[in-house]
Amino acid sequence: MTTDSDQPLDLVGIGIGPCNLSLAALADGVPGVTAAFYDQRPAFQWHPGLLVEGATVQVPFLADLVTIADPANPWSFLNYLRTRDRLFPFYVAERFHIQRAEYDAYCRWVSEELPGLYFGHQVDAVRWDPERALFEVDFTQLGPDGEAEALGRRYARNLVLGVGTEPYVPEPLRPLADAPAVPVIHSSDYLAHRDRLLGGDHLTVIGSGQSGAEVFLDLLRARPAGRERLTWLARTPAFAPMEYSKLGLEQFTPDYTRFFHGLAQPVRDQLLPQQWQLYKGVDHDTLAAIHDELYRRTLHGGWPDTVLTPGVTVRTAGRVATTKVELHLEHGQQGTRSRLTTDGVVLATGYRESRLDTVLGPLEGYLSRDGAERPQIDEHYRLVLDRTVKGSVYVQNAERHTHGVGAPDLGLMAWRSAVILNSLTERTVYALPSRTAFTTFGLEPGRGSREIPGQRDRHVRTRV
After folding, report:
1. CA torsion 403→406→410→416, rounded to 10°?
2. How many other CB atoms are found less than 10 A from the CB of residue 332?
3. pTM value?
4. Chain centroid to CA 20: how far?
5. CB–CB of 23/396 below 8 Å?
6. How far apart are CA 135 and CA 359, in angstroms?
7. Which residue of 55, 199, 222, 318 shows the fewest CB atoms closer than 10 Å?
């Protein structure tokens, strides 16, 4: 086994998605902080299967890797435009929401220019060395073909896990999705299979979120009028718009994150499913574009050959002949069932947080878990570990159960990275605002909310 260096680093990051790329960018140039980040992929990629032409990021361009924490940072999106001589065209375009492909290109620019990033490096295991009071990080350096070329080890005082999420396939459809001959694919792989799908006579999209809407719209635009042969199904009671009111968006602020973290775990678990429209809805422009396209196809009379049905679940699924799929459907409100035969299925069924057990297995004895066996995570995004472990293990986009719906949101990414760096260095590397919302979440101060002026004298406060 080769050793990159026996000199311990302050921080080793596992995974280089947008979250850890944000942390690496904000850590760059911070005096006294040494860091390295590892990812098994050969290069940075951000949802390549969903870079549908014209699709935009659902947060403003200010939600880049650094700006919310450090507007003058050289790794900002605006500086990326400047280096490409595109700042004036962007200024004239007046775009607040940029295309996904442009966000991907921006992140790739950062990943190619920023030092301390190691792609093609698969982290195999992490251990705590009590004698050295350091984490041991074992990795395998991969060649262009993915074959192992060398083994290595780094030592670190702290770790940050940014291993991201994995596509979620509902249980009834997993056998079909795993069969290469059957056209059942997750939306994360949509573009790679688009041409094959368009060759099918009838196509079905399952999932009512933004990805499902974008895939349905793209397929609709590619099909001839009158011969669309498209079905769009969803479990949600409606094809609902995402919550995008100004005060509603304050649930994606640090103020709300602190409030949510201060709630009891049973309350948090009950609250999350109720907030589905904050992150599982569809933006208004996409819904309008779908309706406009459907309406345009009624110009000469008749209706487009499409079926859009919410409130539906897939009970079971099977293969018919060689390439067709039969879906057994149930409508919850009607209490009715039916069957649908289709030539291709796109599962826009979302993502689940990647399990940390594979990498953190050797640390299992040090981890503190809640009643549902999930890792406990403190307000600074650190795993709660046994006191004998002197280092910290931070997590990014693995804390929805403790920090709320903002965990995967790009708009909170730079702020979370700054919180981690301030905690790591035990100093204010980045000054963060104490107040970020007009809404005051909760009545009791000190539990993730601010005290309402005058409240102490006028009301008796009750612990919820």
Report:
1. -30
2. 12
3. 0.92
4. 12
5. yes
6. 12
7. 199
